[in-house]
Write a structure and sequence with these properties.
This protein has two helices and 20 strands. It is of the alpha+beta class. Among the domains are: 111 residues, Uncharacterised protein PF12988, DUF3872 (Immunoglobulin-like, Sandwich), CATH 2.60.40; 129 residues, Immunoglobulin-like, CATH 2.60.40.10. The strands form four sheets. Strands 1, 3, 5, 8, 10 and 11 form a six-stranded mixed sheet that branches. Strands 2-4-9-6-7 form a five-stranded antiparallel sheet, with no helix packed on it. The protein has a five-stranded mixed sheet with strand order 19-12-13-16-20, with no helix packed on it. Strand 12 and strand 13 form a beta hairpin. The chain is flat.
Length: 347
């Protein structure tokens, strides 16, 4: 019995130590942080940064036109225009300018519409009215001298001040235009009054004739065609404005007899003034016998008095030198541009 007491005491001590060790282990054990929560936090932070950067880039792209408009304000090139400070109604004067263009183009006159004033261009014994509020092409015969003669016509007895602008329109539509202006005072014409004894005879003042301007009328005619034995061909054609108003911008199409039946579409052409015309030459290779056709204003974008004369055609054979199908005389005044349009080889 006494021998079993130490054994019982040892078992009790062992049980107490085991419970104590178990209690300490449970007390110091802590839950470890989840790796998934950390990954989600980092991913959310990255997404937030991407959203902020995208917003800043979008704002900058929207604001760039505003800032560029503030700091990149370009003005059209200036043309130095000179004219008399005043001119009498019915008396012609010279409008001159100084400008050296860097590319081909044409000049045009522009003036504000007034009820009692209009301008005319003298042509021999007659004159051609210049429509107001629209660019009127200066005849090519005057362009090399940088001068044009115009005649003011004033109805009434009160002087009128009117600005006149000169524009240079380059052949390439993407190029910048140049302009200049001058203000001219139009004075009434002097009508002498003869005093005679007795009753006073009233002075008859001639009325200013009124003009009814007809619409533009674009026409085309083929001057000549040619083709050599190798298939190199050319067609020369004349586009004219036979109407009473400037034509405005237009284009034309050419149906060429090639091995693949090619259709050529021209770039936008400059406006033709009243009575003006331009001669063009179109060269192409791989030609075959057939018919060459030219159509001006194929979509009827220009308002015209006659649409029938917008088409012309001529046959072309396997080998033929340049042939002209029309006489050199022309039913209206010929005005050639100083440098007619020339088109490169077309394939």
């Amino acid at each position: 019995m006494y021998g079993s007491m130490p054994r019982m005491a040892d078992e009790k001590l062992l049980t107490q130590q085991t419970k104590t060790h178990s209690t300490q282990t449970t007390t110091h054990q802590e839950p470890s942080p989840s790796i998934y929560s950390s990954v989600l936090a980092i991913a959310g932070f990255i997404i937030l940064i991407v959203i902020v950067l995208w917003g800043l880039f979008h704002i900058a792209s929207l604001a760039s036109p505003f800032f560029s408009s503030l700091f990149n304000k370009s003005t059209p090139a200036a043309i130095e225009v000179t004219a008399p400070s005043s001119a009498k109604s019915g008396e012609s004067f010279a409008l001159r300018w100084k400008y050296s263009p860097k590319e081909n183009g044409m000049y045009a006159l522009l003036y504000q519409c007034r009820d009692n004033v209009h301008f005319e261009i003298p042509r021999g014994d007659t004159s051609t009215p210049i429509p107001c509020g629209a660019a009127y092409g200066v005849p090519a015969t005057n362009a090399p001298d940088n001068m044009v003669t115009i005649t003011p016509m004033l109805s009434g007895t009160a002087s009128t001040s009117i600005p006149v602008s000169l524009l240079f329109m380059p052949s390439a539509t993407s190029s910048r235009q140049a302009q200049g202006s001058v203000t001219i005072v139009i004075l009434p014409s002097e009508t002498p009054v003869v005093q005679v004894p007795g009753p006073v005879t009233p002075v008859v003042v001639p009325s200013v004739p009124t003009y009814t301007l007809s619409p533009a009328d674009l026409s085309v005619r083929i001057v000549g065609v040619s083709m050599d034995q190798s298939g190199m061909a050319a067609v020369e054609f004349d586009i004219a404005n036979q109407g009473g108003r400037p034509s405005g911008s237009y284009y034309f199409e050419a149906f060429l007899p090639t091995q693949s039946t090619y259709t050529y579409t021209s770039p936008l052409q400059s406006s033709l003034g009243v009575g003006d015309h331009v001669v063009s030459t179109l060269r192409f290779s791989a030609g075959v016998p057939g018919v060459v056709s030219i159509v001006v204003d194929p979509t009827d974008a220009v308002s015209e008095s006659n649409e029938v004369n917008n088409y012309a055609s001529q046959p072309i054979y396997s080998y033929m030198p340049t042939q002209s199908y029309y006489p050199q005389s022309y039913p209206y005044q010929q005005q050639y541009y100083s440098q007619p349009y020339q088109y490169p080889y077309t394939y």
